[in-house]
UniProtKB/TrEMBL annotation:
Residue ranges occupied by any Glycosyltransferase 2-like domain in the UniProt entry: 6-108
Signal peptide: none
Organism of provenance: freshwater metagenome
Name this protein carries in UniProt: Unannotated protein
InterPro entries: Glyco_trans_2-like, Nucleotide-diphossugar_trans
CDD domains: Glyco_tranf_GTA_type
Molecular function per GO: hexosyltransferase activity
Gene3D superfamilies assigned to the protein according to its UniProt record, in alphabetical order: Spore Coat Polysaccharide Biosynthesis Protein SpsA, Chain A
Length: 223
């Protein structure tokens, strides 16, 4: 069976990290290790969230952004496959089992991803007048994408300095290598919509445009 490390980058997560770790801890297919990367948090939430949890490794670093935190976690992992879950999102109990089953379903599968179920945080905090439609859709967010380490190593890590669109950029670079990819038609990730990530997504539209331009340039160059 494929070994899986789950990497959780975290920065000032408040109580959300504990909920994410709870969802990882109840997996029917337990990960080999859970690696929490504390990216220079100032709220002390990581220490409380990981206390008493078996098989959780914490790496603390100066704040370098989400891309650097993801790369740090991957560098510390040893498993055959990687799953990177944001500190504010949740897995469902069969997430890892379903992804591993898909990865083992054929020869040479290097990446598999599933459905994302979006939900609005019950604590609210969205800007006044904003209405978000909760939906379930196929996606290639990091938290619903299992990646073989061999593919990660070929692609290279996330680009440091990118705080929005860094995973879209990584996926686009991966797809230029024509990996064998399998879609799992099940909910793998519950993506929380809350004030902080809604604001970051709105502010990060310029970076998304930069990612799109870079992808277009790679296609033109045949890479």
């Amino acid at each position: 069976m494929i070994s899986v490390d789950v990497i959780v980058p975290s920065f000032n997560s408040g109580g959300l990290l504990s909920e994410a770790l709870d969802s990882i801890q109840v997996q029917t297919y337990p990960p080999a290790r859970v690696i929490v990367v504390d990216d220079g948090s100032t709220d002390g939430a990581v220490s409380g969230a990981v206390a008493g949890r078996p098989n959780v490794t914490v790496i603390r670093q100066h704040n370098g952004g989400v891309s650097v935190a993801r790369n740090t976690g991957v560098a510390a992992s040893r498993a055959e496959a990687l799953l990177i879950v944001d500190h504010d999102d949740l897995l469902v109990p069969n997430s890892i089992a379903s992804l591993v089953h898909a990865m083992e379903s054929g020869v040479g599968v290097q990446m598999c991803h599933g459905l994302v179920q979006e939900f609005v945080d019950s604590r609210g905090g969205l800007p006044e007048g904003v209405r978000v439609t909760e939906r379930t859709l196929p996606a290639r967010l990091s938290g619903c994408t299992l990646v073989r380490r061999t593919l990660w190593d070929r692609v290279g890590g996330c680009v440091p300095g990118m705080s929005q669109g860094e995973w879209i950029d990584w996926i686009d670079r991966a797809m230029t290598l024509s990996p064998k990819v399998v879609l799992v038609n099940e909910v793998i990730l519950r993506r929380r919509i809350h004030a902080n990530n809604f604001t970051r997504a709105t502010a990060g539209k310029v970076q998304y445009l930069d990612v799109a331009r870079a992808a277009l340039a790679r296609k033109r160059e045949g890479r």
